[in-house]
Amino acid sequence: MSSPLRVRFAPSPTGYLHIGSARTALFNWLTARHGGGQMLLRIEDTDADRSRPELIDLIFRTLGWLGLDWDGEVVHQSKRADRYRDAVESLLAAGHAYWCECRPDEVKARAQARGGKPGYDGHCRDRELGPGPGRVVRFRTPDEGETVFSDVIRGQVSFPNADLEDFVIVRSNGVPMFHVANAVDDLDMEISHVIRGEDLLPATPKILLLRRALSSESDPLFAHLPLIVNEKRQKLSKRRDDVAVEDYIERGYLPEAMANYLATLGWGPPDGIEIRPMPEIIELFELSDVTKSSAFFDIKKLDAFNGEYIRALPVGEFINRSTHWLFSNPPWPPENFSAGVFEFMAPHVQERVRTLSEVPGYVDFLFLDQPLIDDDSWQKVMEKDRVLAIQVLDVAIEQFESLEPWESKAISLAIIGWADSNGVKRQKAQAPVRVAITGRSVGPPLWESIEVLGRGRTLERLRSAKTRLATT
RNA sequence: GCCCCCAUCGUCCAGUGGCCUAGGACGCCGCCCUUUCAAGGCGGUAACACGGGUUCGAAUCCCGUUGGGGGUGCCA
């Protein structure tokens, strides 16, 4: 009989939710949902100095944004100090742990004197010290043998016990440390699968030794996920890399795209179809299929995923989701914004953006009093062939003044018809108009843009471009 | 230093002894479509780190080398 499937995600609230943590949460969640098990949440906040309680709620919200949910009450380690103290007492009583009065600098100095080998030398091991100010509790690690465990992803892993120093389990301020809290909680929460980042692999023998000393009959199954790395193949770090999931939300990534992309880091569906709905991923996901080697967090590929997800949205939904970027710090005077105009252009914009934060850049010319003229575009299109540019602008002005009906089809015919009958490439003919109207040489479809801009503003921009061309 | 993990296209995944003259996706390049840019279509570029074994046969198994990474806290 195997124990019920129970996994947990155990973040430490020392910062925003990290991309790597999000992936760990996702894989835990996928394992639980795939196997009909439970996904628990635990906040590892034993270090009061580094923990920031105000971030806990943000972590919850970010997990929610990603579409991850959890079962049962959230466990906060900061509220379980008594439980850890009891566990430490029993460890002490059984001789698995002992009090130590060595100060960090003393430990370090002795290590140096020994000749480089870092770590604690067991100085207080057999001194039978009792509690006292400044004293810590250390765990007595075996001197011989090895600690072996099986990892769903890596197979059997073993660590020589002799390399394990007698590590601290209770700080001098009386607060228990990560290893004990972690071991005790996984035991109490009856976690069956410990799924976490590979950076915790070396901590596993310590936790296992602790569990066994706490008289647990069975070890959980471990699964150490490959690290997510940067372009230099180093573990994503808060300092040098863009790792806060919150930042990606602000940059306009869709949660579905982010979750889907994260799922492909260290795992791939058997049929090779990477972009697919989460229910399918849940069905296909298998923890034992997870890759062993680290994965580069490739923004370009994330962008591709995101672009696909954006295009797959119903237009109305695209409009809804764009709202935030349209209203917070838009490049135009807010009162100029017109929902109707945006809705008209939305399908064209949707097809072109890869992130929602790019949306304003595609419609800004519609809501700005004057288009922002891009120098390179002006040079390339207007200055390089002034004769043609002026000619096209004149034609456009003349045609547009009396064009009926004012709609994209007729507008396109006015310019294209002229180009075709005058031996001018359509591409060449539209360019000056585009720059005059939008300020750039690239952008959404021109004829539709002109239609929605309106005759008056269009003529105004054409004339002003002509003037600018004539006076420079 | 010591311990541990890892090693297929630039990147992410396939591949679990013969189906591999190694497949898909992103990127990149080219062509088509086209009012620009996208999107879409078509095509292309590009990898089994190296050296030994084992085997009739190895990307796949074993050993070593090299390379990369993680850990080595009174952080988690």
Give your account of this protein's structure.
The chain is mainly α and 472 residues long. The strands form 5 sheets. A 3-stranded parallel sheet has the order 1-2-3. Helix 14 crosses helix 17, helix 15 crosses helix 16 and helix 16 packs across helix 17. The mean pLDDT is 95.
Concise overview:
With 472 residues, the chain is mainly alpha-helical. It has 19 helices and twelve strands.
Mean pLDDT: 95
Counting DSSP E segments of at least 2 residues, the number of strands comes to: 12
Largest sheet: 3 strands, parallel
Strand order of the largest sheet: 1-2-3
- Helix percentage range: 40-55%
Q: How many angstroms does the end-to-end distance come to? A: 85 Å
Fraction in beta strands: 5-15%
| Secondary structural class | mainly alpha
General shape: elongated
- Give start-end ranges of low-pLDDT stretches: none
Produce the secondary structure layout.
Elements: E1 6-9, H1 19-35, E2 38-43, H2 54-65, E3 75-76, H3 81-93, E4 97-100, H4 104-115, E5 136-139, E6 146-151, E7 155-160, E8 168-170, H5 178-188, E9 193-197, H6 204-213, E10 221-225, E11 228-229, H7 245-250, H8 255-263, H9 278-284, E12 295-296, H10 299-312, H11 315-327, H12 339-350, H13 359-367, H14 375-383, H15 386-402, H16 408-421, H17 426-438, H18 446-453, H19 455-471
Parallel strand pairs: 1-2, 2-3, 9-10, 11-12
Antiparallel strand pairs: 4-5, 5-8, 6-7
The structure holds one RNA strand of 76 nucleotides.
